[in-house]
Design a protein that fits this description.
Structural class: alpha+beta
Bound molecules: copper (II) ion
Strand content: over 45%
Number of helices: 1
Order of helices and strands: HEEEEEEEEE
Strand order of the largest sheet: 3-9-8-5-6
CATH architecture of the largest domain: Sandwich
Shape: elongated
């Protein structure tokens, strides 16, 4: 294979990669119009959410996923949906459920009554 042929093939490969990236990029773009919660981790230190109250915004029917990572043992309460889960000191607990009810809901450390996240489900 000549040097020129090699460059031509390399150029073709680059074009294919760029075209593929554009196609993937534009088709993925439509997904951005819907709000997704993504993987949300709420770090709790000294019974407070690190970085303030975390926002979880989803559309009704979308999945809600979040993890609470706490340095103290806590009971996590998702208001509205009324889910309760315990997290051990230095441990994590994950929640995963469909957003069936629209509205704004407090997620808190049940015992001290400290809000750690705000779940907003748009209709
Ligand atoms: Cu509560």
């Amino acid at each position: 294979m000549s040097r020129n042929q090699r460059f031509a093939l390399l150029g073709l490969a680059v074009v294919v990669v760029v075209v593929a990236a554009v196609i993937i990029g534009t088709s993925g773009g439509s997904d951005n119009s819907t709000t997704t919660s993504g993987p949300v981790t709420i770090d709790v230190k000294d019974q407070k959410p690190v970085g303030g109250i975390q926002k979880i915004d989803v559309k009704k029917g979308d999945p809600v996923h979040f993890t609470v990572d706490s340095d103290s043992a806590q009971e996590i309460h998702v208001h509205g949906y009324d889910f309760h889960k315990d997290v051990p000191a230095g441990g994590k607990v994950s929640f995963s459920f469909p957003a069936k009810i629209d509205g704004s809901f407090v997620i808190e450390l049940e015992d001290p009554g400290v809000q750690i996240a705000a779940l907003n489900v748009s209709p």
